[in-house]
Amino acid sequence: MLIKPKKSLGQNFLIDKNILKKIANTVSIYKNKEILEIGAGTGNLTHYLVKKNPKKIFVVEKDIDLSLLLSEKFKDKITIINKDILKISENLISKEKLIVFGNLPYNISTEILSKWIISINNKFWFSKLILMFQKEVADRIISKINTSNYGRLSILSNWKLDIKKIMNISPNSFFPKPKIESTLLIFSPKNNFFKIKNPKNLEMITRIFFSQRRKMINKPLSQIFQNPYQIAKKFNINLNLRPQNLSHDTYYKITKEYENLRC
User: Fold this and answer.
1) Domain boundary among 155, 189, 223
2) Where in the sequence is the domain holding 245, given as residue range(s)?
């Protein structure tokens, strides 16, 4: 079956065998482990994951043509879920913690990651996430305080997850060849993370701050709190700083304080 990549679904198939092997070897895969692959495409990475002989491989592939191709190619070696990843309850796929691999469509990659982070309560449905992003997005995810890339995505991503960069991947490794580089990241659940009642509050607060990222933080603080000076004093915040000068933890504390004052 000849498959033509669909631009509407952001399909760029990874074809570099050396890169595919490296991705499959990123974490140790044992026979008692279960794997979830997001957007398997033509099954290039799936081939190397099957070779690892895990307990089970679930594959989410929205494209019906690709789902049929994967079914033909791998038979009963994989379980195919022909659905949109944004409409799936991942915690219902398996009772076990999954190792997740994903060459995420660039147009919805941050939406997928945000959905996963927000939906986690105290129990993680995965043990590792090995995900590929557009390099520019990955740079924002792993960005540090006091840098131009630092912002909402970094604060949200680092809330419940430890993140490590594995490698950059050239456009030449894909078909069709994208215009930009990609980056592979690995995410691990944090044993302890800051407890916030409603993640939407963290999203709201970081949105207020970073929509005015060039302004000093006394302005966004005064939009959120009736007495911003009291909040600044409580958390030892210099009101002359700008949003990128506040740590992840400071944003979590501000969110918690907002929630406490509203109750």
Assistant:
1) 189
2) 199-262
